[in-house]
Design brief:
Layout lengths: L7 E6 L2 E6 L8 H10 L4 E3 L5 E3 L14 H18 L2 E6 L6 H10 L8 E7 L4 E6 L9 H16 L3 H15 L7
Parallel strand pairs: 5-6
Antiparallel strand pairs: 1-2, 3-4, 6-7
Helix pairs in contact: 2-5, 4-5
Length: 185
Amino acid sequence: MTARSATSSPARVQGTEVAVVTGDQQHDPPSRREEQQRELPPGEVVVGTGRVSAARRVIPVLPTLPFSRSQLAGIDDALALATRRAGLNFSVYLGELGDETRARAEELLDSLGTQAATAVLVAVSPGQRVVEVVTGAQARHRLTDRGCKLGVMSMAAAFEQGDLAGGLISGLRMLAEQTDPPPVS
C-alpha cells in the first residue's frame, strides 16, 4: 500500500522505491496544536505539520467454522459409511433454509443433478431449529418416512444438548440402518 498526496516524490533506499509524502498544510502555531490535542480521542495526536496521526487497533475477523477438524472427519466418515452401507448417496446441508424450509431442501436435493434420484439429503438449519430429510425418487422406496423420523429424532436429541456434529453422525447412522436393502435384480 502506498500513501500519496498532492506532493510526493519517490526516493531510493537500497534499490527499493519508497514513496515520500510531504504535507500540504502550513504549520500551526503551538497554541493551536495544543487546542486540537485536547479535542482528540485517545490514540490520536496532532503532529508538527498539523496533520492528525491516529493509532487504531485492528482485530482481524477470522471465519469461524461450526466444526473442528476431528468433527469434520467424523461427519465425513459417517457420510461415507452411510452411503456404503445403504447404497444411497447421503449428503448434508448446514445453513439457512429460508421461510419455506421443505421447498428449499427439495431444491438442494435437485441441485445434486444425476445423483438426486438415489440421494438422501439431511438439511439442518440450526438458527431456525429445523431438520429436513429429503429423499430422491429411487431412495424414497428404500427409506420410509418412519425411518426418516427416527433419524431426525436421534439428531434432535443431540442437537438439544448442543452437539451438532454428534447429532449429524448419529442421524446418518440411524438413516443408514433404517434403509431397506437394494432390490435383487
